[in-house]
Amino acid sequence: MEIRTIEAPFSEEVLASLHVGDIVNITGKIFAGRDAVLPKIVKMIEEGTLKENGIDLQGGVIFHTAVSPAGVGPTSSNKLEIEGTMPELTKAGIRMHLGKGALKPETVKMMGENNTVFAVIAPVTALLNSKVTSKKCLAHPELGMEAFYELGIDGFPAVIAAAHGESMF
Hints:
Elements: E1 3-8, H1 12-16, E2 23-33, H2 38-47, E3 61-64, H3 80-83, H4 86-91, E4 96-99, H5 105-113, E5 117-120, H6 125-130, E6 132-139, E7 148-163, E8 166-167
Parallel strand pairs: 1-2, 2-3, 3-4, 4-5
Antiparallel strand pairs: 2-7, 5-7, 6-7, 7-8
């Protein structure tokens, strides 16, 4: 199977071309956040304060991870604090959620209705850390490694796990 390189932020056309089982290498700028910060980002969406914090989610990717000195690796995306934020993050422009684990059928359906995909990534912290080209804390630095970051990446390998209302789980 061919591995396709896609660049974030994503166009609607790129997203429409992705299918369950596709293997992709993601490059570009992505966001990193997990259960401590994603509910706070949803609150910022509700308050309309993303732009004043330099956050534009349009076509973006959120990697469910902390950014620690040891590197980055996926956390379980089906945690209530993470999966529960996906509808609002998707409405705000996120087009790929990147993590690990199976999502609820209603979450997969919601993403399908919004041309949004979920991709899983193997928990290989050292490999992923070698693919991070830049790190910038955008919001909630008091959370340390669980703050909301923008990462520059080059070649994150992932598998599309849910697209167009279908899931591999």
